[in-house]
Amino acid sequence: MQTRFSPEQLADPDTLTSESVVRRCVHCGFCNATCPTYALLGDELDSPRGRIVQIKEMLERDAVPTVETVRHVDRCLSCLACETTCPSGVSYRRLVDHARAYIEARYRRPPGERLTRALLAAVLPYRRRFAIAVRLGRLMRPLAPLVERVPGLGPAAAEMLRLSAAPTAAVAQPVAVVDRPVRRVALLEGCVEPVVGGQVQAATRRLLARMGCEVVAVPRAGCCGALSHHLGREGQALAFMRANVDRWSEAIDAGVDAIVVTASGCGTMLKDYGHLLRSDERYAERARRVAARVRDISELAAELGLPAATLEDAPAIAYHATCSLQHGQRIRDVPKHLLEAAGFRVSLPTEAHLCCGSAGTYNILQPAIARRLGARKAAALDAAAPAAIASGNIGCMAQIARFTATPVVHTVELLDWATGGPKPPALDTHGDG
Ligand code: SF4
Ligand code: SF4
Fold first, then answer.
1. Which atom of ligand 1 is closest in space to residue 28's alpha carbon?
2. Ligand 1: distance of its center to the CA of 370 in Å?
């Protein structure tokens, strides 16, 4: 696609990157076929190709974003299915990330939206604040139908209350002692997963110990920055990234050779640190070093080899490949193969490329589209009548669980169970297996 950026505009590294992305696009529209918003809404402006054109025009003209452009960029899930499909290698994520930051800096949203976004940015990335918010949300959940009617703020606030229903599992973390470790690894604890998915990290620690890994604590490592990044709050996101690069660089210097991630959305962000901090002279090199050591738990398990499976009569599982794993990190079949190696019978849903609608804060900010995607995904997974649904990201697990009675667990909980760990709590609760 031709562009008309001036040399002055191209002096900005983000504009330069966006220009090269746009020029790669040949406008063929193959990406439209796998875009969830285009599938639901059927509007070219809600397709990747349509968004590329709108973002290009906004950036070229240095324009104040229009309500229309903001609406269509906001509706994008950043699922990156379009990147997987594109035959020309268009790195759409660079363009939409730039557009989100540009909009955040130059567009004044209505008061309700501003408040919602400010609240999300002030609460979600901070573990303690998020834990308090979840407790408060549970108390106030019966008020959701009333809250929904508050103009501007209502639908998002009501959705937050409904999401606070996700069961918390604050499991005490066992300290794994490994005599002669084959690897020293740090586990990304993050902000949301320890509050609503403590069982995931407990299972990961057990599995890592069984695979011969010593898990090293990295104090003060915090949110990966993805939530702020996708809200267009680059200043906040960069602050999180720099703090983490400091902490993990120290850990790497002390002998940690992998940073293990169980929330695939965070993993995609961490693997991108090298690019996101490329213009920061103090951090660029260390950010690349950190990013190169990031491993999704499924990658590391495949690399080290699963311990022998001990589970008799492992149940049937439907596997949901999260967008951040299959499109963001291009890890597609590894988790399914691991589950099969552990003895589970694994089915994949139809439309496996489609997003479940979780997408970070998307299910709060765009609840109508997110609900349709969540219901569609859950129905596709349930078609095989599985005993459980497995996925690799806490946000996707909570989203899918809202639309199905089938227990939803993290892939690592099943791998841990099959190789000697306890049965996942969600399966026990459902009295299944
Ligand atoms: S598939 Fe790639 S090249 Fe074709 S329109 Fe989409 S982004 Fe552009
Ligand atoms: S990231 Fe997902 S929702 Fe956004 S344009 Fe690409 S396919 Fe569509």
1. 4
2. 24
**Is any ligand 2 atom within 6 A of the Cβ of residue 51?**
yes
pLDDT per residue as tens digits for the range 134-174: 777 777 766 666 666 665 556 666 666 666 655 555 444 55
Alpha-carbon gap, residue 173 to 67, rounded angstroms: 47
| CA 83/CA 317 separation, integer angstroms | 28
Q: Determine the distance separating the centroid of ligand 2 and the alpha carbon of 356, expressed in angstroms.
A: 12
Residue 177: pLDDT over 80: no
Ligand 2 in reach of 39 Cβ (< 6 A): no
CA–CA gap between residue 142 and residue 155 (Å, rounded): 14
Task: Give the tokens for residue 281.
Answer: 């002279």
| Distance in angstroms (rounded) separating the CA atoms of residues 366 and 219 | 35
Ligand nearest to the CA of 80: 2
Dump pLDDT digits (tens) for 313-359: 999 999 999 999 999 999 999 999 999 999 999 999 999 999 999 99
Ligand 2 site, residue 78, Cβ cutoff 6 A: yes
Q: In what order do the strands lie in the sheet with 183-187?
A: 213-216, 183-187, 258-261, 294-296
Rounded distance between C-alpha atoms, residue 70 and residue 263, angstroms? 28
Q: Does 419 sit in the ligand 2 pocket, CB within 6 Å? A: no
Sheet holding 388-391, edge to edge: 345-347, 316-320, 388-391, 408-410
Q: Does the CB atom of residue 64 touch ligand 1 within 6 A?
A: no
pLDDT digits (tens, 9 = 90+) for 31-69: 999 999 999 999 999 999 999 999 999 999 999 999 999
Query: What is the rounded radius of gyration, in angstroms, for the C-alpha atoms of the chain?
Result: 21
